[in-house]
Amino acid sequence: MTDVLVLPSGLLPDAILSITRTSESPPIAEHSIRSFLYARIRAAHEGTVADAQYREDLLFAACVLHDLGLGSLAQGRTRFEVEGADLAAALLTEHAVPAADVDQVWEAIALHSSHGIADRRGLLTYLTYTGVFMDAGRFTDGLDDGLLRQVRVAYPRPAGDRSVRDAIADHAARSEAAAPPYSIGAELLRQRRAEANTAN
């Protein structure tokens, strides 16, 4: 891997970065970029970069857009993963991305928090899920720590950062549809309310 930090460029990647950075808080936008870089490292480590299914353009879209449902464009009408997937699909469709590719990105985003499912739904969904959770410290065993350190230095994560967790709970609080039973949104909202009750 020559330079792990180089991001794709062009009209669509620029639009993806723009919508992410303007609609999400800076910590969440940086989490999304780190997720892509980590997913790229994982793909290189596992040798799937040479796989016919590997599409870095789609991986960039899925990872960088995966938390659109936690940004200012989301209405809180459904769970954040699905709302983000819908927003991402709309952006890609506007840029004439083929419907089959849009559908792959939609699935990767909609399932990115689904343990036990995402890793069984094809390479793009698996890598998106893995990149997201690598940023939470999982799935890093055996990887080149020098490459991981480059990502952490270029896009540092503040110590004790709870921005993603807090944003998920905020989104879930907006409507019953945004926090269906047993979803991660419902669980984080339940934890928040339990902590508030304990504090009182």
Count every helix, treating DSSP H or I runs of 4 or more residues as helices: 9
Secondary structure category: mainly alpha
CATH architecture: Orthogonal Bundle
Residue share in helix: 55-70%
Question: What is the CATH topology descriptor?
Answer: Hypothetical protein af1432
Mean model confidence by pLDDT: 94
Low-confidence runs (pLDDT<50, min 5 residues)?
none
The arrangement of helices and strands along the chain is: HHHHHHHHH
Number of DSSP-assigned strands: 0
Number of domains: 1
Strand content: under 5%
Radius of gyration from the alpha-carbon trace, in angstroms: 16 Å
> Which CATH class is shown?
Mainly Alpha
The biggest sheet amounts to: none
Distance between the termini: 52 Å
Shape: globular
Pfam families: HD
InterPro entries: HD_domain
Protein name: HD domain-containing protein
Domain HD: 29-118
What does this molecule look like?
The chain is mainly α and 200 residues long. The chain has one domain: Hypothetical protein af1432, CATH 1.10.3210. It is 59% helix and 0% strand. α2 crosses α6 and α4 runs antiparallel to α5. The N and C termini lie far apart (52 Å).
Give the SSE layout.
Elements: H1 11-23, H2 26-46, H3 56-64, H4 80-94, H5 99-110, H6 123-134, H7 145-154, H8 163-172, H9 184-199
Helix pairs in contact: 1-3, 2-3, 2-6, 2-7, 3-5, 3-6, 4-5, 5-6, 8-9
Features:
single chain, 200 residues, mainly alpha, Hypothetical protein af1432, 9 helices
Compact summary:
This protein has 200 residues and is an all-alpha fold. Helix content is 59%, strand content 0%.
